[in-house]
Amino acid sequence: xxxxxxxxxxxxxxxxxxxxxxxxxxxxxxxxxxxxxxxxxxxxxxxxxxxxxxxxxxxxxxxxxxxxxxxxxxxxxxxxxxxxxxxxxxxxxxxxxxxxxxxxxxxxxxxxxxxxxxxxxxxxxxxxxxxxxxxxxxxxxxxxxxxxxxxxxxxxxxxxxxxxxxxxxxxxxxxxxxxxxxxxxxxxxxxxxxxxxxxxxxxxxxxxxxxxxxxxxxxxxxxxx
Length: 225
Description:
Elements: E1 3-8, H1 17-21, E2 24-31, E3 34-42, H2 43-53, E4 59-63, E5 66-77, E6 84-90, E7 98-107, H3 111-114, E8 119-122, E9 126-131, E10 140-143, E11 153-155, E12 166-167, E13 174-179, H4 181-189, H5 195-224
Parallel strand pairs: 1-4, 2-6, 7-10
Antiparallel strand pairs: 1-3, 2-3, 4-5, 5-6, 7-9, 8-13, 9-12, 11-13
């Protein structure tokens, strides 16, 4: 299990901005049997661990020589740079199944792409599964070599997962297909109005970040009473 070292965080609320300037990420640890612990972790160390573990593999969070098996439950990102600015670590009950989102990794070359000139369309790129925390897969590999014609498709029921892992989607949902180039071109021609929606999401992220900082400041004042 990968290990990430963390320290107890003294700066809360808007004061965490000084931490980020020093490449230190504010974080919080919580769980069904864990009282909230406010933490700070090294920015580079976290990014290295996250590349290897993702959000569906248990890691060992070391806090003052104590070890906590945790999941990287949520990453709050800067709406402009997309870099992490706050981390939520979740300590699950190891004997109880939980849900997690696992990325799909597509591998191989489809004959329908190589020989027929089609384009691979990934309808699903990540999937929710349910399992014991220690059994959660880091990723699920999907071999697209079975897509030999435009009529072939890979369905959810075709995915191979470890024993004890339950996929939380309908078996007949399409994961990947290959479509002719002309059909894809028709789809790309359709008008889309996504710019306003993207800007709306960015604003919501900024508001949520400010609310979280205000909440931490209030909790700090309560604890100081």
